[in-house]
Write a structure and sequence with these properties.
This is Glyoxylase, beta-lactamase superfamily II. Residues 23-219 form the Metallo-beta-lactamase domain. InterPro entries: Metallo-B-lactamas (IPR001279), NDM-1-like (IPR050855), RibonucZ/Hydroxyglut_hydro (IPR036866). It comes from Micromonospora krabiensis. By secondary structure, the chain is of the alpha/beta class. It has a single domain, classed as Ribonuclease Z/Hydroxyacylglutathione hydrolase-like (Metallo-beta-lactamase, Chain A, 4-Layer Sandwich). It is 28% helix and 22% strand. The protein is built from 7 helices and 13 strands. It has helices at residues 44-56, 72-75, 90-100, 106-115, 120-129, 201-207, 225-234, and strands at 4-7, 10-13, 26-29, 35-38, 62-66, 85-89, 143-145, 148-150, 156-159, 169-173, 178-182, 214-217, 223-224. Strands 1-2-3-4-5-6-7 form a 7-stranded mixed sheet. Strands 8-9-10-11-12-13 form a 6-stranded mixed sheet. Helix 4 (106-115) runs antiparallel to helix 5 (120-129). The protein is globular and about 50 Å long. It starts with a strand and ends with a helix.
Length: 235
C-alpha cells in the first residue's frame, strides 16, 4: 500500500481492488500548512497501513479529515487520526451518531445477517476488516456544513447527495484540477438496491467542469475529464 502522486497537491492511496473487500481508497491534499485527508480508511488496521504509507511518501500529516459520506468503509478508521478536525455534511453527523450506538461485534453482525440476508456481503467484509472491536470508534464530524464549505488551505467541499448516500460530498482542489467524487454517483448500497438502480449519470454530467482535469471515485481508477465524458456518453 502506497501513495501515488496524481496532480498538483493531490496524492492517492488506492483501496483493495477486490470488490468483496469493500475497501475505499483515500486521498491526501498535501500542504505544509496542514494536509487534508479525504476519508479515513475502513478500519483501524487499514488506517494504520495508510498512516505508514503517508510516512513512507514523506507527506505532511493531516490537519483535517473530510468524510465524503458516512458509509463504514470510508469512516471506520477515523480513530487512528486523533489530532485532526473531522469535517462532514450535517446529515452524516446524525447518521454516524446512530451507527456509533450500535453494539458492533461478530455476534451482532451474524444476528443482523440472519435477520436480513442481503446484508451478508457488507457485514462479512466488516468482520474481516476489523481485527479488534475494542479498537473501533465510530466518530461523527466535529465540523459540519450544509451546502458548501472551504478549508483554509483552499480545499472546497460541496454537498451533492444522491441515491448512494444522503450526505455525499465531493471534494474540489481547484489549484490541482482534481475533483474527488467519493461514491456520490454509485447506486444505493447492495442491500437497498432495486433491479432498476444504476449509476447516477445525470449527477456526473452536472459535475463535469472544464476547470478540472481529474475525476477520482473511491473504488475506481482516476479518470481524465475526456475519459469521464466518454464514459458518460457511452453509457
Amino acid at each position: 500500500m502506497r501513495f501515488h502522486h496524481l496532480a498538483g497537491r493531490v496524492w492517492l492511496c488506492p483501496g483493495d481492488p477486490d470488490p468483496e473487500a469493500v475497501q475505499a481508497g483515500v486521498a491526501v491534499v498535501a500542504d505544509e500548512r496542514g494536509s487534508v485527508m479525504i476519508d479515513a480508511g475502513q478500519s483501524p488496521a487499514h488506517a494504520r497501513e495508510i498512516r505508514a504509507a503517508l510516512d513512507d511518501a514523506g507527506l505532511p500529516p493531516p490537519r483535517w479529515l473530510v468524510y465524503t459520506h458516512h458509509h463504514w468503509d470510508h469512516v471506520w478508521g477515523a480513530a487512528a487520526w486523533p489530532d485532526v478536525e473531522i469535517v462532514g455534511h450535517v446529515t452524516g453527523a446524525d447518521l454516524l451518531r446512530a451507527e456509533a450506538a450500535r453494539p458492533w461485534s461478530h455476534r451482532y453482525l451474524r444476528d443482523q445477517v440472519r435477520a436480513n440476508p442481503r446484508l451478508a456481503p457488507s457485514f462479512r467484509a466488516r468482520a474481516l476488516a476489523v481485527d479488534s472491536w475494542e479498537d473501533l470508534a465510530i466518530l461523527p464530524p466535529t465540523r459540519t456544513f450544509t451546502d458548501e464549505d472551504e478549508l483554509p488551505v483552499g480545499v472546497r467541499l460541496r454537498h451533492v447527495g444522491g441515491a448512494h448516500a444522503p450526505d455525499s460530498t465531493v471534494v474540489l482542489v481547484p489549484d490541482s484540477g482534481v475533483m474527488l467524487l467519493g461514491d456520490c454517483y454509485y447506486p444505493p448500497p447492495a442491500h437497498l438496491r432495486g433491479p432498476d438502480d444504476g449509476p447516477d449519470l445525470a449527477l456526473v454530467r452536472r459535475l463535469l467542469d472544464d476547470g478540472y482535469r481529474w475525476y477520482v471515485s473511491s473504488h475506481g481508477e482516476p479518470m481524465t475529464r475526456d475519459e469521464a465524458r466518454a464514459a458518460v456518453a457511452a453509457a
